[in-house]
C-alpha cells in the first residue's frame, strides 16, 4: 500500500521529500507513482518541469469522474501521466481540487482514492511497486483520503518550535484515522528536514523527540542550497547530483524506510 507524506504545517518540505524518495525508488527499477493531492501542484511542477500540463489528465479529473455513474467503467490508469524519468509516473495536481471538495464530501467519496490505488498496485491495472502521496498542508478531504489509502505516513519536521507543537496534534489525527478507517495505517517515521548539525537548537529539538519515544528516522536531511537548483531544473537530487551529501542522505533515508516496509 502507499506511503503518504503529511504535515498540516506548510513549508516543511513535503513535496521535496515525496519526489526525491519516489525518484530513488524509480532509479532502482521500481515502477513508481506519485499522487499530487496539493492544489499548489509543487510535486507536479518538480517532476514535469516546463512540460506543458494543458490538456493532461489530473487527479482532479479522477475525483470529478468519481461523482459520475460511469466511474466503474474507467480505469484509474487513465488519470496518470508519464514523467521524463524512467519508471516514474504521476497523478497530476489540479487547481480545481478546492472547488470539488464540498461535492466529494457530501457524496461520501472518501474511499475512492484507496480503491483506485489498490487497483494500480495490482499487476492487472498498473503493477506499481511504490506509490507516494503528496498532501496539502491541511487536514481536509484529500488528506484524509490519502491517510485512508496509505499503509504508512511520513511526517516532515523542520526543527522549529511551531513544528514541534503541531506534531502532537498531527500524530493524534493519524491515530484517529487509523482507529476509524484504516487499521493498517502506521506512522512510518518523522523525517528531520533542513537539519543544521552545528546549530544547538535543532539538535536539542530532535533529541527531545527521541527522548519522548517518537519514531524519528535517520539519517536527518541536511540543509543545502543545492535543493533550490534541483527545484529550478525539475530534477530530483538522484538525477541532478547522485554523489551530493543531500542525495546520499536521501538514499540512506529511502533504505531506512524500505527496511521498515520489509519489517
Can you characterise this structure?
By secondary structure, this protein is of the alpha/beta class. 43% of the residues are buried. The radius of gyration is 18 Å and the shape is globular. It has 11 helices and 7 strands. A 7-stranded mixed sheet has the order 3-4-2-5-1-6-7, with helices on both faces. α1 packs parallel to α2 (42-48). The protein has one domain (3-262): Rossmann fold (3-Layer(aba) Sandwich).
Topology overview:
Elements: E1 3-5, H1 14-27, E2 32-36, H2 42-48, H3 59-66, E3 81-82, E4 88-91, H4 97-106, H5 112-121, E5 130-134, H6 141-149, E6 152-157, H7 161-180, E7 186-192, H8 200-211, H9 226-233, H10 237-240, H11 245-262
Parallel strand pairs: 1-5, 1-6, 2-4, 2-5, 6-7
Antiparallel strand pairs: 3-4
Question: What's the short story on this structure?
Answer:
This protein is 46% helix and 12% strand.
Amino acid at each position: 500500500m502507499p506511503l503518504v507524506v503529511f504535515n498540516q504545517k506548510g513549508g516543511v518540505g513535503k513535496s521535496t521529500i515525496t519526489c526525491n524518495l519516489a525518484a530513488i525508488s524509480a532509479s532502482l527499477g521500481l515502477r513508481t507513482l506519485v499522487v499530487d493531492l496539493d492544489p499548489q501542484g509543487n510535486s507536479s511542477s518538480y517532476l514535469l518541469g516546463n512540460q506543458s500540463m494543458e490538456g493532461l489528465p489530473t487527479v482532479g479529473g479522477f475525483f470529478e469522474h468519481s461523482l459520475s455513474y460511469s466511474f466503474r467503467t474507467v480505469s484509474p490508469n487513465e488519470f496518470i501521466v508519464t514523467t521524463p524519468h524512467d519508471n516514474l509516473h504521476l497523478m497530476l495536481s489540479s487547481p480545481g481540487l478546492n472547488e470539488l471538495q464540498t461535492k466529494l464530501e457530501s457524496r461520501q467519496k472518501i474511499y475512492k482514492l484507496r480503491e483506485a490505488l489498490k487497483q494500480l498496485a495490482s499487476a492487472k491495472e498498473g503493477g506499481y511497486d511504490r506509490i507516494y502521496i503528496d498532501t496539502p498542508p491541511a487536514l481536509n478531504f484529500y488528506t484524509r483520503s490519502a491517510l485512508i489509502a496509505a499503509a504508512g505516513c511520513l511526517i516532515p519536521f523542520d526543527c522549529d518550535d511551531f513544528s514541534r507543537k503541531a506534531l502532537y496534534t498531527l500524530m493524534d489525527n493519524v491515530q484517529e484515522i487509523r482507529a476509524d478507517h484504516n487499521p493498517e495505517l502506521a506512522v512510518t517515521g518523522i523525517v528531520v528536514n533542513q537539519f543544521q548539525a552545528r546549530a544547538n537548537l535543532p539538535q536539542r529539538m530532535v533529541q527531545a523527540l527521541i527522548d519522548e519515544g517518537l519514531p524519528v528516522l535517520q539519517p536527518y536531511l541536511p540543509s543545502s542550497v543545492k535543493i533550490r537548483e534541483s527545484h529550478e531544473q525539475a530534477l530530483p537530487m538522484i538525477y541532478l547530483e547522485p554523489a551530493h551529501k543531500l542525495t546520499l542522505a536521501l538514499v540512506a533515508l529511502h533504505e531506512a524506510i524500505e527496511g521498515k516496509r520489509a519489517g
